[in-house]
Amino acid sequence: MDNSSGVGVLDKAVLVLNALEAGPASLAQLVQTTGLARPTAHRLAVALEHHRMVHRDTQGRFILGPRLAELAAAAGEDRLLAIAQPILTQLRDLTGESAQLYRRQGDVRVCVAAAERMSGLRDTVPVGSALPMTAGSAAQILLAWEEPDRLHRGLRGAKFTATTLASVRRRGWAQSVGEREQGVASVSAPIRGTGGRVIAAISVSGPIERLSRAPGRMHAPPILAAAEKISEMMRRG
């Protein structure tokens, strides 16, 4: 089968990237694996390094670069949003409350998708909003399964405790009542990607008057089901 695209320099660059998929390679190994002339392999590898598609390890060997991981993360996020949006809408309709999807970005969590309640008292969180990682059920979810050192750093100044996060891990969901905003309650569950890593949190939120002071008792089952549905679809690849 001919894998040529008709754009010779691009095809040769892809040969270099494909060769590095197996692991670090010296220039001699790249030449052997790709069949390219040594000057060509070197020129392409250095050009790809300039664009961060290729990097060098401590021994000077060529390895896949950080830009590929960044592009993969962006593609994964687009896929997550496409999968999650209709499920958020279903969750809103099932619970009668606004539903949101959050991803962690450094020291904040960002609302990357939402399905707002159509009428009545709402807890509106516009898409793109950056909220603190120190309060709220989604913050608890995004922190609870972190590595111990990151988890303990994240607890500094938080309105929840290590004991709270231990309970979150045990039952698989989190709730908050007036933690981020007075009068607002929420329930969240983790969305997991490849390897079971938590990549996002799905939530419903609304006034305490509707969700009560034990919102998990009311809404944890449908949120867990929605989270598992999204996680399963993400794992299918």
UniProtKB/TrEMBL annotation:
Q: Does the keyword Transcription regulation apply?
A: yes
Keywords in alphabetical order, please. Answer: DNA-binding, Transcription, Transcription regulation
One of the Pfam families matching this protein, by short name? IclR_C
SMART domains assigned: HTH_ICLR (SM00346)
Protein's UniProt keywords contain Acyltransferase: no
Q: Where is the HTH iclR-type domain?
A: 7-66
The IclR-ED domain is annotated at 67-236
The UniProt entry, under InterPro entries, shows:
GAF-like_dom_sf, HTH_MetabolicPath_Reg, Tscrpt_reg_IclR_C, Tscrpt_reg_IclR_N, WH-like_DNA-bd_sf, WH_DNA-bd_sf
Protein's recorded name = IclR family transcriptional regulator NdgR
Q: Which source organism?
A: Actinoallomurus spadix
Its gene is ndgR
